[in-house]
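WARN  no MSA supplied for this record, continuing single-sequence
INFO  ligand: pyridoxal-5'-phosphate
INFO  echoing inputs
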Amino acid sequence: MNAHTLRRCNWKFEELRPNIMGIDTVVPLLDGRHVPYVFLDNGASTPSFRHAFEIMGEFMPFYSGVHRGTGFKSILATQVYDEAHDIAGEFVGADLENNTVIFVKNTTEAVNKLAYRCDWREGDVVITTMMEHHSDDLPWRRHAKVVHVGVDDKGFLDMDELRAMFETHRGHVRFLAATGASNITGIVNPVHEMAALAHANDAYMFVDAAQLAPHRGIDVRPDDDPGHIDFIAYSAHKMYAPFGIGVLVGPKKFFAEGEPDMVGGGVVDLVETDFVAYSAPPAREEAGSPNVPGAVALAAAIHMLRRVGMDRIAAHEHQLVSYAIGKMKEVPGLRIFGPVEEHELGSKVGVISFDMEGVPHAKVAAILNAEGGIGVRNGCFCAHPYIKRLLQVDDDAAKELTDEILSGDRTNIPGMVRASFGCYNNHDDADRLVEMLHRIATGDFHGDYELHRRSGTYWPKDFDYDFSSSFPHFSFRPTTEITDFTEAS
Ligand SMILES: Cc1ncc(COP(=O)(O)O)c(C=O)c1O
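INFO  complex generated
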């Protein structure tokens, strides 16, 4: 099995939508009606491709432990698992002679692993950006001094400042770590230009492709190309295979030396009571029994995306975002963050973050759900510095807010609402969103939304779900209490 032989079917663009599991799910509204759900939180996690799920299902009768078993099933599973690595590497154009593909849980684990595995020196610096998800910021802070390149008012990276930072920290920069696309504005960074800068300064380039991989074709370019991306990571749950696996690609030689971050079974060639010989990567970096079904599903999802064509997906999403933004601009009091002009939209993936004058972001999100059957996300999206910059929260206000939040009151927590589109969303989805936004902006909603101060969330009074009719397998506890706020992607 490889990317070309996984299944010789040519997926067509029109087949994407019916291939989405749950595309017809109907959800209850506050007024008792049931409507088809519009899912616009693909930036957090996408639904599964049916194809990925089915291929995983076809594999399951052969499921077995890999690498050490001698039976038929184990031999088959081992081949499948190993080839899934190749498929995940080919997806980003990696030269698999010199690079290894390591399976991890997700992008967060990939960055933590990479940061751990670097042979840091005293005074090392990592340049990252103000637009990073915390997952491409906090792991580096544990090992090196981290500096953040600024962004302009729209959220675009300040390339002049990046150049200046390389000058300021000349000789000390080990990594330039940047997101391929922002999870808030959708802005796509010029990663190859950035990589060339990094290499000219003897630094590695790492790209967090969590938000890029589902939306754009990626080519890390040959290893000797100045714009080559040295390391790249992405998550399967954001690209239609949500079964607990992520990918880290990087030079074999980088991982061939030193101690893996996690040790135990699977990472060694030999163990004496006083001696350990670690295996070559990727085994060296994948301690314990791996997620073989997740790897199969990822390979199948990649296969489907590639067969449809990442260019077609990018073109469709561009057209959809352009349509949605055009309509959203007509909603009174709605402010969109990031690029909104037609000529800028080519440098943005399908993520649209916004707020609405006079209506808290959490309340907008709650109404979209309870009265529109539309799933979005609100808050700070694990990128607090970027949100603060885009909302122009000054230091005094930020200090006051911090005190408030630490005292357990999130009433005034800054944030936005995010509608994030996937390859299968269509104009009807955008229309449903825009129609509800008009209703919210003009006060045409019916619920009495109560604020839960501790979580900063809103919920309509006297409304609760009966999940047992949707998913009868668990015995749900009755809940009128809104769960505590924990922030995710
Ligand atoms: C840009 C970006 N980087 C990293 C992550 C972390 O991804 P994961 O939760 O799969 O580790 C996310 C998640 O939303 C993201 O949007």
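Residues 217 and 376 are 25 Å apart (CA to CA).
INFO  checksum written, moving to next record
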